[in-house]
Protein: Actin-related protein 4
Organism: Rhodamnia argentea
Amino acid sequence: MYGGDEVSAIVIDLGSHTCKAGYAGEDAPKAVFPSVVGSIDQMEVDDAANTDTNSGAATEAKSNVKTPDSDKNKGKRKLYVGSQALGYRRDHMEVVSPFKDGIVADWDIVDNIWEHAFRECLLIDPTEHPMLLAEPSSNPQQQREKATELMFEKYKVPALFLAKNAVLTSFASGRATSLVVDCGGGSTTVAPVHDGYVLQKGVATSPIGGEFLTDCLLKSLESKGIKIRPRYSFKRKEVRPGEFQSFDVDFPSTTESYRLYSQRVIASDIKDSVCRAPDSPYDESAYANIPMTPYELPDGQTIEIGADRFKIPDVLFNPSLAQTIPGMESFSEFAPSVRGLSQMVIESINKCDVDIRRELFSSILLAGGTASMQQLKERLEKDLLEESPQAARVKVLASGNTTERRFSVWIGGSILASLGSFQQMWFSKTEYEEHGASYVQRKCP
């Protein structure tokens, strides 16, 4: 048993879009940075070009992890973690994500992300703090064991606990039973939580998350002839006081993935600023002459965004809309199997036992970065009222504070790890040495 109340635990929520880390007991994470990293293959780049002065957050990584493109990773690669390191353009730098379909595919990157969170952001020594890691609701057994092994073997943490995202969101709003709708960056997951446990049979996921919507917006703007210039591709010069002109700067060895990453950062901001969920299903003719909303791009040009403000968010409720966006045709092959938000909620509740369905209908929690979109809660509630059984009292709950919606998983972890009654639940280092990594299944159900 680990009685770790004299040092505060560290809570880490590594999502598909951002990694959040901080101390238990605080009300928001200290460090929030992208979950993608910049990677430069040392084989391609000559060592001469490697005298890079700006490699503050770079870490050398010998890749011994088998990844699908492990032939490329045979040599050493240099990884750049954190928004500052990623914001700086480098030749041949690819932007890679450790996830594939929501599951960690490259532990090497995860390791570097954790390292960055501990050493650069929180400035702590991991051997002194118990760790609470948030994990996806349907995380396979070997993934949990691998995380446990890394934490105890490499970081030598005194104690560890793995908690499911949905459960933490539920705790963050002070409930033990609820239906958690988590709209994240990479996907949307609906998970029923009963008495603090996820009911696995009711978990539903869809590949439509914030990043998918960002892609839709990018393609839609491109089809209208609006070109988003990444920040590194131009310089602004003052011609007259207060008047700027921008000039293109050419970097031939910038990788495609980095260009796309930089464009997505801007598109994502446009989405956050102007998009809102429509009150009723999107209809081309009804929104044809809607007033335009202006948005100023980093290079100074102002663009006008019309019907897309409503069309893009509606993809969450009606995935087949994505096929009408030029450039998103590749989505059509798996579009029929992808369900809208309200269908997922109803399907998920129907898979649960009859006696808890009413309770789930009346406490549907919205969480995740994409859930902080305006009017999303009202629209979901409206759709569910139309589709749910008459007897059900539908109530969609979402914190009015967008920070709380974005970080609800982390906040739940922060609350849980600082509870006195939780302290005997930790999976301690001695238990790990005695029983091995597979014991995590018993300690962290």
The radius of gyration is 23 Å. Confidence is low (pLDDT under 50) at residues 47-56, 60-74. DSSP finds 14 helices and 22 strands in the chain.
